[in-house]
Amino acid sequence: MSCENRDWVDIPSNNKSCGFSPYQLVSCDIRATRVSNSPGTQHSQTARAVSVRTQCAAPSLPSDLSSYIRQYKYTPPGESNAKVRLDLNLLDSDIVVNCRSISSIKYKLKEDREYIRNTQYILNLLPYDDYTIEVKVINNANDQTTVSFTFRTMTLEPYDAPVIVRSTSYNKTCVYLKWKEPNQPNGVISKYRHRYYIKGQSVPSWMKLNRPSQINSFIACGFNFGDLVTYEIAAGTSAGFGPLATGDIRVTCGLPIIPEVQTSYVTQDLLEKPKHEMTLTWEEAEAACDSILYYNLTVKHGEKTLSHDHYLEVEGGTREKVLEDLDPYTNYTIILIAVNNALNQSIHKPQYILTPELAPYDGPGLSIEVNSSCVTLSLQRPSEPNGVILSYSYNCGYASTTGKEYQTENADGQSITMCEFPSAERIECSATATNSAGNSPVNTMIGYTEIAS
């Protein structure tokens, strides 16, 4: 028997021919041979063509089913916010049937119980959200294939306005506005438009902000003391702008403007490990009103608050804070807030400082390996370097003789070999580490060269 131009096979020794697709019509030639017992007699053959079809199998679906989703913006009856509806544009011609025909194409949200036909809509989906769709296809032999995939719905305009974080008078001619993106942005917020005008006067053109950050702010000036300024601001995605955030700000006293805090240091040398005493001072803030009432000063190390102090701004009042036992080469955060007589606070502006270096508290890590005439020395960074290690100094000597002193700059983790030592001698190696503030204590190790063979 031979099928589809394949080699002849004997029946019944092998009566299978494989490698065909499901539901494929295969043409086979069958040849019968009669063998005579008489020597020299010719074989007689008869041939017959037969067509046979392979069995059905489950349908095969396209690899990227998300490309068959069609999405539409629509507003459900009785609602004001637009949502998304979709259908599955998957046709019989897009499917490898593996049988005679497709009997049904259905789909649903994964969490739904019932499937719907691919010509029906799935409704009330939120924009710019991830959903999982389950597709089920059945052919006429009742073989079925079920596939799930996840996709993101389309971007729409924001449902709501930007969130106003702060709106206040900045000084006697300016107003200050601070905002963040809407709670339901329906996509990536890529732009804002905003404007400011005196109530009852002509409305200016929009100002655009096309590279917004998570929190944005603006100072609008050119007004008079007592003016009532209206602001309008809207956030936009690639689909358009959402509703306006709007309100009024009275131009009165504004926000105090604080100077930068100055720092000075004294080293506390009498401690077991020297540390810093830091003094913080600052000039009087610009009141943006009649006067400053008080200051709040906070000093933090990471998330830990080291101090929080309240200073009244009275004649001859102190604007100074002294902190002791501060670690060298360490980051601290200073937050100074000024409050004026209109109870307006200055804008929160953390100031970050790095305390000066001190000499390392401990010497470098040190290890040695010794053979009959050589010493291999390894140096490691001190565990408390108190700054950036610039160089190492080291030497190795034997008996009462001091060896030559060496210096290297980038020796962390490196091995240094020195030779020509006598055999069977006591070898003493020492090393120090140096940063911009000075040298570390000396670390020493002792080894013995081997007896030469």
From TrEMBL:
<protein>
    <submittedName>
        <fullName>PTPRD</fullName>
    </submittedName>
</protein>
<dbReference type="InterPro" id="IPR051622">
    <property type="entry name" value="R-tyr_protein_phosphatases"/>
</dbReference>
<keyword id="KW-0677">Repeat</keyword>
<dbReference type="InterPro" id="IPR036116">
    <property type="entry name" value="FN3_sf"/>
</dbReference>
<dbReference type="Pfam" id="PF00041">
    <property type="entry name" value="fn3"/>
</dbReference>
<feature type="domain" description="Fibronectin type-III">
    <location>
        <begin position="161"/>
        <end position="256"/>
    </location>
</feature>
<dbReference type="InterPro" id="IPR003961">
    <property type="entry name" value="FN3_dom"/>
</dbReference>
<keyword id="KW-1015">Disulfide bond</keyword>
<dbReference type="InterPro" id="IPR013783">
    <property type="entry name" value="Ig-like_fold"/>
</dbReference>
<feature type="domain" description="Fibronectin type-III">
    <location>
        <begin position="262"/>
        <end position="358"/>
    </location>
</feature>
